[in-house]
Amino acid sequence: MEKLRRVLSGQDDEEQGLTAQVLDASSLSFNTRLKWFVVCFVAGVFFSILGTGLLWLPKGIKLFAVFYTFGNLAALASTCFLMGPVKQLKKMFETTRLLATIIMLLCFVFTLCAALWNKKGLAMLFCILQFLSMTWYSLSYIPYARDAVLKCCSSLLN
User: Fold this and answer.
1) pTM
2) What tens digit of pLDDT does each residue of 7-44 get?
3) Which residue in 129, 124, 128, 149 sits closest to 139, CA to CA?
4) Is-contact 136 155, C-beta < 8 A?
5) 51/69 Cα distance (integer angstroms)
6) Element (H, E) at 111
7) Which candidate in 6, 79, 108, 122 could, as Cys together with 114 as Cys, close a disulfide (CB 3.0–4.6 Å)?
8) Whether pLDDT at 112 is above 70
């Protein structure tokens, strides 16, 4: 009803504050979405740290790859609670981050496949690629961050 009132009164979405826009994104309340964001993000961090701890056990590379991937998936899914799953997917597949998204998702799949097929070297390689692709994907949300990283890397190589 509030949304209808805003439209009829001529208020545009650009005039709304960030909180109001986030609240309109889904039917969950802001507090509920914030709580579930924290739960998923903390679970993601926990799984990643747990995977790192399991790395030193026998057959630990397999456990590391699985827990590290689940941790990254949980951390990525946590942002769906803030902006909504549809908006998250639209942003993920925008042209500026399309390649990073595809590589990141493929690294998730390849890491799990390599770990479950007991290909330790490949699992470790895909974990590293997963980290790099997640970093590149995350940098796409920060203006000029990718350019700055590329400049730093090129200056180090020269």
Assistant:
1) 0.73
2) 545 554 555 555 555 545 557 788 888 899 999 999 99
3) 149
4) no
5) 9
6) helix 98-116
7) 122
8) yes
Contacts 24+ apart (CB under 8 A), 30-39: 33/81, 33/82, 34/81, 34/82, 36/78, 36/81, 37/78, 37/79, 37/81, 37/82, 38/78, 39/78
CA angle, residues 61, 102, 108, in degrees to nearest 5? 20
CB contact at 8 A, 118 and 154: no
Looking at residue 42, its amino acid is: V
- Tokens standing for 67? 């827990």
Cβ atoms of 64 and 127 within 8 Å: the answer is: yes
For residue 93, give both structure tokens: 């597949």
Dihedral pair phi/psi, residue 141, rounded to 5°: -85, -10
Report residue 104's pLDDT band, with 50, 70 and 90 as the boundaries: very high
Q: Within a 10 A sphere around the Cβ of 16, how many other Cβ atoms? A: 14
